[in-house]
Fold:
Amino acid sequence: QVHLVESGGGVVQPGRSLRLSCVASGFTFSSYAMHWVRQAPGKGLEWVAIVSYDGTNKYYVDSVKGRFTISRDNSKNTLYLQMNSLRAEDTAVYYCAKPYYYDSSSYAFDHWGQGTLVTVSS
Amino acid sequence: DIQMTQSPSSLPASVGDSVTITCRASQTISTYLNWYQHELGKAPKLLIYAASNLRSGVPSRFRGSGSGADFTLTISSLQPEDFATYYCQQSFGTRPTFGQGTRLEI
Structure:
């Protein structure tokens, strides 16, 4: 049974940093790219970042480029999101999400964590 | 990036009704389109993948269709547990994007 558990959220002042973690179980973590998706209060879902199965390729939504870094430790089955220079608009519930590949190049998010809340406020 | 536009943003309905939500991509995305249900405080749930494929365990009253740039999600015979927010999501590009959501409300 697939399980994704996020942690590391909390209240942080603007300009400060926070690192989120997502511990995965129930599947071969090292075989899958992994994603972070967020939802700001009263807003919709927004994809944030992806890291390839081996950690070599990473892509980000424009609004976090240069501030956030996605990474993974396959020996620990853990996904990370290092968030620097945080802004009020980064306030959101952050979910890690596992892809389900339905063909060679495309996917859907078939498993999600329960989310961790990040609040950026002075 | 590919922009996804859903309509309507909110949809009043009653138990037993049938409803349709539309999703339009800013460019053609073949059938690389997925639908999710999201209830407040819970993780999003995958309903439909590749535009029209029902995920295992999802009730058959959920149906997806479309290809290219225009897609629909139809829910027939609404049940109380269906009142939630629905999102489309494209996985055609390197960076996936979601629609803004449709809130299905009683």
